[in-house]
Amino acid sequence: MRRAKSRTRRFARAWDDLRGRSGRRIVGLVRDQVAIARAGAELARSVASGEIERSAARARMADVEHEGDEARAELVRVLRRVLATPIDREDLFRLSRSIDDVLDHLRDHVREIDLFGPEDLRFAAEPLQAVIDGLDELEGAVLKMIDAPASVTEAVLATRKACSRVRQLYQARLAVLFAGPLDMDTLRRRELLSRLDAVGRRLGEAADALADAMLKRSH
């Protein structure tokens, strides 16, 4: 009886693969991860602009991180069961891990703001908006994997452009910061800026993972 049920499940998965359902489900799960990371970036930007109190944002970020962990865990479970994937399985893991890293660094950014952040956080708002823009572009690239694979590269390039914007803003703000007095406030701002630079780098790694996967698929 158990063997019969097992064969039925394998047949159902194979049938879903043939009809493309598994691929679309995987795309949806990756999109969920991106959307959750975007929610984390929006939360961090709200703190920087003074729209939400720091300790409240830190508590909310813990919930967002939990949602991200669940989304990644579900993607891993599905990848273990399906027979066919829209891109290479290894690249999917790499993409998912990089998106998770983006959220982890955003979590640390909000935590550090609550622990030792300076009073004025407006310097972080624009870099965080660039992160949000990059995540929007990445989401668009993910959604095109199946139906418009030729368009993924353009969306990935837009993601990379947003990452470059994060790096440029980081460098510009750091230059202004070091032109002033070197005190504890300077060190706090530097740490927060470095964390945002790390967010941008992890987002760039996610874009690279998707670009590499699509290049493999085209050969």
TrEMBL record:
Where, if anywhere, are coiled coils annotated? none
Q: Which family does it belong to?
A: Belongs to the UPF0111 family.
User: This chain belongs to which protein, by name?
Assistant: DUF47 domain-containing protein
- InterPro entries of this UniProt entry? PhoU-like_sf (IPR038078), Put_Phosphate_transp_reg (IPR018445), UPF0111_domain (IPR052912)
Its source organism is Streptosporangium vulgare
What domain of life is recorded for the organism?
Answer: Bacteria
Query: Where does the signal peptide begin and end?
Result: none
